């Protein structure tokens, strides 16, 4: 691993010698140049005769150094890398493979029936990004470290299949974010701490809700429940917006009327702006459709 490499996956390549597992770990990284791999060990284990790699379709295996790097495939291209090792006693490990794909929209890594979303193919995107439930026939369950970090999206909608969000996965350009109930593994640094202009929509008592409460990130808007539901009918909708405007214009509002979305002790124009952001968003049209 070199400076700037971001670890995406670690996979053990195991063979069994009289039921005793013998393994090397292969690490997969993303960096500015593209993709990189190495052995997850400081040095070749003494029993390891050689570590081999080839691109799918190649006949010959190449004995690798500890580390090698490749450019990310162009839009529409997929590259499958196969790995194996041979011990000093000439025992071949099983072949393990990763496929790095670029569908023109997303760059992602598949292996073992799972997909990890690594980056957007075009990192200059702005506006709304709706991450799909499926990419290339695989369910999207994981977003890698830095997945969207270099993009400029302001509204980000994560799918209800997503379970894991890596460090810095969400960019600092984010203004409104939908976190699904399926999300249970959130890196400590997954979300930017922009302040209370950052509207995060989630369900009450979801793992995402607990995470943003504990870390004091953004303004939380529960999709069902209390915050944002100013008239107390269990829904956050346009009637709450009308009610909020009335409350904010009342002279002695002190934030105890359910309208204090950013928890600053006042129901005022800031809260109206936060709720307006939600009503104008794609998140709102999805929730209400
Ligand atoms: Ca309501
Ligand atoms: Ca307020």
* Rg, Cα atoms, Å: 24 Å
**SS-based class:** mainly beta
Order of helix and strand elements from N to C terminus: EEEEEEEEEEEEEEEEEEHEHHH
Number of domains: 2
What is the mean pLDDT? 86
Low-confidence stretches: none
Q: What is the CATH third-level topology name of the largest domain?
A: Type 1 dockerin domain
Reading off the top of the CATH hierarchy, the class of the largest domain is best stated as Mainly Alpha
DSSP E strands, number: 19
Helix fraction by DSSP (H/I, runs of at least 4): 10-25%
Bound molecules: calcium ion
Shape assignment: elongated
Strand content: 35-45%
The DSSP helix count reads 4
The N- to C-terminal Cα distance equals: 46 Å
The main β sheet shows up as: 10 strands, mixed
CATH superfamily of the largest domain: Dockerin domain
Q: Architecture of the largest domain, according to CATH? A: Orthogonal Bundle
């Amino acid at each position: 691993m070199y400076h700037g490499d971001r670890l995406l996956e670690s996979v053990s390549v195991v063979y069994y010698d009289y039921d005793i597992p013998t393994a090397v770990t292969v690490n997969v990284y993303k960096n500015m140049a593209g993709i990189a791999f190495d052995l997850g060990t400081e040095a070749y284990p003494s029993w390891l005769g050689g570590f081999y790699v080839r691109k799918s379709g190649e006949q010959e295996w190449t004995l690798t150094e500890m580390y090698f790097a490749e450019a990310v495939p162009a839009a529409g291209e997929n590259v499958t890398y196969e790995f194996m090792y041979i011990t000093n006693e000439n025992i071949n490990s099983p072949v393990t493979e990763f496929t790095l794909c670029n569908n023109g929209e997303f760059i992602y890594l598949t292996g073992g029936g799972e997909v990890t979303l690594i980056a957007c193919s075009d990192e200059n995107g702005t506006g709304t990004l709706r991450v799909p439930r499926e990419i290339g026939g695989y369910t999207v369950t994981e977003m890698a470290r830095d997945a969207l970090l270099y993009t400029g999206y302001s509204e980000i909608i994560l799918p209800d299949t997503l379970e894991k969000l890596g460090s810095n996965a969400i960019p600092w350009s984010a203004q409104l974010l939908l976190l699904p109930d399926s999300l249970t593994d959130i890196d400590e640094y997954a979300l930017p701490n922009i302040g209370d202009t950052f509207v995060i929509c989630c369900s009450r008592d979801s793992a995402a809700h607990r995470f943003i409460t504990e870390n004091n990130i953004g303004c939380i808007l529960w999709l069902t429940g209390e915050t944002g539901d100013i008239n107390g009918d269990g829904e956050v909708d346009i009637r709450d917006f009308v009610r909020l405007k009335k409350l904010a214009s009342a002279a002695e509002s002190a934030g105890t009327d359910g309208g204090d979305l950013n928890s600053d002790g006042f129901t005022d124009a800031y809260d109206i702006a936060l709720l307006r952001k939600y009503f104008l968003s794609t998140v709102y049209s999805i929730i209400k459709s």
